[in-house]
């Protein structure tokens, strides 16, 4: 946090005291790059934004059992997370394409075709997920899309389908209405996802 404030203050100071801001063209290996810099007292300083890095304290465990449970959670999140990202990507594609289709009948046909294509491509892979991985996937879909799996099914396939799939999920101890709670019960999952996204896990 202190580093962010210091960096922000430095950039603010540099921009307030700079006499000019310009782009710098760099040619390397036949490619052209545009960089940004400021000129202060005749010196050109390179400006760049850097990706945010999350640093968590080293996790300590009360027992080997707790350590194994944590490692298992990491494995399960790594297995489920790519499917949640895929769900977000596919949902964005579906919404973009539905906006171009005027007829309600054509929209329903399009959704059925997409559903069939997804089932053909991913059904066997998804069947291999454990119940725990399935529950984590339901939560991660909510994290990625901002909507629960129940809401997505209801929106795309209607209330009856949503009710049916929810009843089926409940038989296996899952809940399509599960919401992702990044500050509560899903805090550890959220931390693992952030570390995965940043290439730290």
Descriptors for this entry?
61% helix, three-stranded antiparallel β-sheet, 12% strand, 3 strands, 201 residues, mainly alpha
Fold and architecture overview:
The chain is mostly helical and 201 residues long. It folds into two domains: 2-47, no CATH class; 64-197, no CATH class. It has helices spanning 2-17, 64-98, 104-127, 131-145, 149-157, 159-171, 187-197, and strands at 20-28, 31-40, 43-47. Strands 1-2-3 form a three-stranded antiparallel beta sheet. Strand 2 (31-40) and strand 3 form a beta hairpin. Helix 2 (64-98) packs across helix 4, helix 2 crosses helix 7 and helix 5 (149-157) runs antiparallel to helix 6. The two termini are 22 Å apart. Residues 13-21 have low confidence and may be disordered.
Q: Short description, anyone?
A:
By secondary structure, the protein is mainly alpha-helical. The protein contains 7 helices and 3 strands; from the N terminus they run αβββαααααα. Strands 1-2-3 form a 3-stranded antiparallel β-sheet.
Detail the topology: elements first, then pairings:
Layout: H1 2-17, E1 20-28, E2 31-40, E3 43-47, H2 64-98, H3 104-127, H4 131-145, H5 149-157, H6 159-171, H7 187-197
Antiparallel strand pairs: 1-2, 2-3
The helix/strand series, from N terminus to C terminus, equals HEEEHHHHHH
Poorly predicted sequence stretches spanning 5 or more consecutive residues: 13-21
Radius of gyration: 24 Å
Tell me the total number of β-strands: 3
């Amino acid at each position: 946090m202190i580093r962010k404030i210091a960096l922000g203050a430095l950039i603010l100071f540099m921009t307030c005291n700079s006499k000019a801001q310009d782009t710098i063209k760099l040619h390397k290996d036949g490619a052209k790059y545009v960089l940004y810099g400021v000129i202060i007292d005749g010196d050109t300083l390179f400006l760049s934004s850097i990706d945010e890095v999350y640093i968590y304290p080293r996790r300590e465990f009360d027992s080997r059992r707790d350590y194994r449970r944590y490692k298992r959670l990491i494995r399960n999140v790594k297995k489920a997370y790519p499917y949640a990202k895929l769900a977000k990507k596919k949902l964005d594609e579906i919404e973009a394409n539905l906006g171009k289709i005027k007829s309600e009948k054509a929209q329903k046909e399009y959704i059925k075709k997409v559903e069939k294509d997804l089932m053909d491509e991913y059904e066997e892979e998804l069947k291999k997920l454990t119940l725990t991985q399935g529950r984590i996937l339901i939560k991660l879909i909510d994290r990625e899309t901002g909507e629960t799996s129940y809401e997505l099914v209801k929106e795309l396939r209607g209330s009856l389908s949503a009710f049916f799939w929810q009843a089926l999920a409940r038989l296996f101890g899952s809940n399509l209405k599960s919401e992702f709670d990044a500050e509560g019960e899903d805090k550890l999952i959220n931390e693992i996802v952030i570390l995965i996204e940043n290439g730290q896990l």
